Amino acid sequence: MAWVRISDDFYDHPKFDAAGSLGIALWVAGLAWCNRNLTDGVIPHRAARRLLDFEDAAEAVHAADDRNGVTNAPHNNDVTASVAKFAADRLVKAGLWIEEETGYRVHDYLDYQKSADQIGASRTKNAARQAAFRERHQNSPNASKRDGSSNGVTNSGVTGAPNPNPKERTTSSPSETRDDIERVCKHLADRVEANGSKRPTITDTWRREARLLLDRDGRTVDQVLRAIDWCQQDAFWRANVRSMPKLRKQYDTLRLKAMGEREREQAAASRAARQDQGATYADRGIF
Fold this sequence. Notes:
By secondary structure, the protein is mainly alpha-helical. The protein folds into three domains: 10-112, Arc Repressor Mutant, subunit A; 116-143; 176-282, no CATH class.
């Protein structure tokens, strides 16, 4: 049995507000289906319609129609198909799924979940380890004393359960020890605290989003630090950007807002310079 990774604060992301409760249920079921079937985040249309028991939602629609006295309501199968498509469409509009010709692809699946190759390699490694363990014990001097009650494999599980609280780190990863990631995370936490808010906890989710911002999005540390300073001194954005996931999500918007502000300041300075120059000419009697 394998596991999928879901942060315990995922429902705070605005995308899940847009997806709705039925969309969230379908998204979670989709992660499990992809992991179990080793599809690297791809879900065929037919499979997507079968991930949840949409008949429950269809029954709720019919019950509402009955209470409201609606007649000639569509057949339950028709409503079930409509509900399934509705939930999938909500995920696409929210940016959690991407619709393709043959089905759907979970957005950024491989950024957070293991790939099929990684899972296969892990299974091969575990199988080899177990085989070596059995061979060692079968060839040991005490092998003949066994009564057959043990198969020579340790009782510990092959795959451990995921950490129930991602805020408590159980293993070290490269992102946790990178100075550049720690620097940008700490700077944002410092600025949020300096604005009078409770100091945010720097979680593994923060570090992951900081790593993606630097490595995948191609931002430099200095650029990210300047973006943090700009948004935390802006009355609107400091109330809306108080975490690294939100900073990465809004980064391009912040950059464009800052560029617009600078252009307006430059235009105002240019107008002021022209006005000063005009006054000088007038004083000299040119006009």
